[in-house]
UniProtKB/TrEMBL annotation:
Residue stretches in coiled coil: none
Provenance organism: Ceratodon purpureus (Fire moss)
GO terms for cellular component: plasma membrane
Keyword Cell membrane: no
Membrane topology: Single-pass membrane protein
Compartments where located: Membrane
Main location as per UniProt: membrane
Keywords: Membrane, Transmembrane, Transmembrane helix
Any one of the GO BP annotations: defense response to other organism
Name under which the protein is recorded: Late embryogenesis abundant protein LEA-2 subgroup domain-containing protein
Domain Late embryogenesis abundant protein LEA-2 subgroup: start-end pairs: 153-252
Transmembrane segments: 79-105
Length: 278
């Protein structure tokens, strides 16, 4: 007995002709992309080939266009232009404010100087040399000083007041300290000139033998060169507004006659200059 060929049932329904996505979705229960077209299924005698397996239920993901890249060069240009514009605006505002203050208050530069230097005492440790018949500085050499300084500060402004902090004074001879003092601060009103006096004292201030010998020669010549450094902090007050304090430095060179001079102790010459810093 001849056996008839066995035909195995297909798991998927046979499709002999291309169908639309909507029809195939209805037949299979799955969703398909609108552009999906299945291939035509063929069968042979005695064998049923399965149709193309269906896609997953999720289907093809939707197309997402990529975001365009930002141009870094354009971003840098924008940052530079914005920064420069802000700086120009800030400079313009500050300049306008300074101009308004100048017009309203008409500020003038204060003046600082050393008015007088008077030596009350200046003793150098020395010994008498019989060979040279002159005074010689001892080794080590010390000096005792009592120097009166007279300072003045002038405020020519009509609407600006000045607040002075503590004033430090240091006197030197050829770089060696021969006296220092501190003056308490004070408050200066408008259009005012203030005079301040202070004694610069030193006891056994050390000097080198060379400096001691040079100082003895200067005393005998009635012309003693001295240097002074004056440091203070100053703040300006305009109405209720007060600026931060800034440093004022005054450097002076003097030539002073000692008390043993024929005309007595007095200031022979002076040269001062001052500067400020924040």
């Amino acid at each position: 007995m001849a056996l008839s060929p066995r035909i195995h049932p297909s798991h998927y329904p046979e499709i002999s002709e291309p169908v639309s996505p909507s029809e195939r979705s209805t037949a299979t229960g799955y969703s398909f992309h609108p552009n999906y077209q299945p291939l035509k299924a063929y069968t042979t005698p005695g064998y049923a080939s399965p149709a193309r397996p269906p896609p997953t239920e999720i289907g093809r993901p939707p197309f997402k266009p990529s975001k365009p890249r930002r141009n870094c060069r354009n971003c840098c240009k924008r940052c530079v232009i914005t920064t420069c514009s802000l700086l120009l605006i800030l400079i313009f505002i500050l300049g306008l404010a300074a101009l308004i203050i100048w017009i309203i208050f008409k500020p003038k530069i204060p003046q600082y100087n050393v008015q007088d230097v008077h030596i009350n005492k200046l003793n150098v440790t020395s010994r008498y040399d019989t060979a040279s018949r002159s005074l010689q500085a001892t080794d080590p050499t010390y000096v005792d000083t009592d120097i009166l300084f007279t300072l003045y500060a002038s405020n020519p402004n009509e609407k600006i007041k000045i607040d002075y902090k503590k004033v430090n004074i240091k006197t030197t001879y050829q770089g060696s300290n021969v006296g220092q003092a501190a003056i308490p601060g004070w408050y200066q009103e408008v259009q005012n000139t203030t005079t301040v006096r202070s004694d610069i004292l030193a006891t056994k201030a050390p000097l080198t033998v060379t400096q001691g010998a040079a100082l003895l020669v200067s005393i005998q010549a009635n012309d003693i060169p001295l240097d002074a450094r004056i440091d203070t902090k100053v703040a300006i007050k305009i109405g209720a507004w007060k600026t931060p304090a800034v440093w004022i430095h005054v450097s002076c060179n003097f030539h002073v006659a000692p008390p043993s001079a024929p005309g007595g102790a007095k200031l022979l010459s002076k040269s001062c200059k001052w500067k400020w810093r924040g």
